[in-house]
Amino acid sequence: MHISEGVLSAPVLVTGAAFSIVCLGIGLKKIDEDRIPLIAVLSSAFFIASLIHVPIGPASIHLVLNGICGLLLGWAAFPAIVVALFLQAVIFQFGGLTTLGVNTFVMAFPAIICFYLFNWLVKRHKLWIWISASFVCGALSIFGSGLLVAVALVSTGEPFFQVARLVIIAHIPVMFLEGFITSFCIAFLKKAKPQLLEVAHERQTKY
User: Fold this and answer.
1) Record: fold of 10-204
2) Is the pTM of this model over 0.85?
3) In this model, does residue 104 exceed pLDDT 90?
4) Helices then strands, each counted (H, E), the chain
């Protein structure tokens, strides 16, 4: 998912940065102080999961875990993800500072969409409902991120059209893997600490 520096055009970089700044402001406004430790844990999980990546042209494929971040954090997924991406850019040169805005939006915005689509479903008591919802959430968040990467590349210029299509195809296995991981995490939380899902929903609906 990381888009390298020197690939995207200036208008795409500026647009991505503007969208991320707006969404980051919303996310910071919605953060509850008692949930900062959870945000830090999920930011760390995101940081570690995406360290192992496979380069594909100007981008790369790897685990993202933005689905579970969205389910548990809602809009706070933006601050969690931008911190992890910033540290990766500074320490390991993954992505870059100029592409930080685009990369943040690419990975965090689908997490927000998945929160509103699936958070209420994963709290249902019927096993098949929350298992299916959590799996689709994990898979859809990756598909959404892959699609946004493709849009960013195509918006930069026609030469990236084939790369954009390759990025989406290459993420199909990652979609299934993230779906299983998200389902496993939700299954664990429903037994160990189901209130995490409730707090996320209540906090987001106050605004």
Assistant:
1) Arp2/3 complex 21 kDa subunit ARPC3 (1.10.1760)
2) yes
3) yes
4) 9, 2
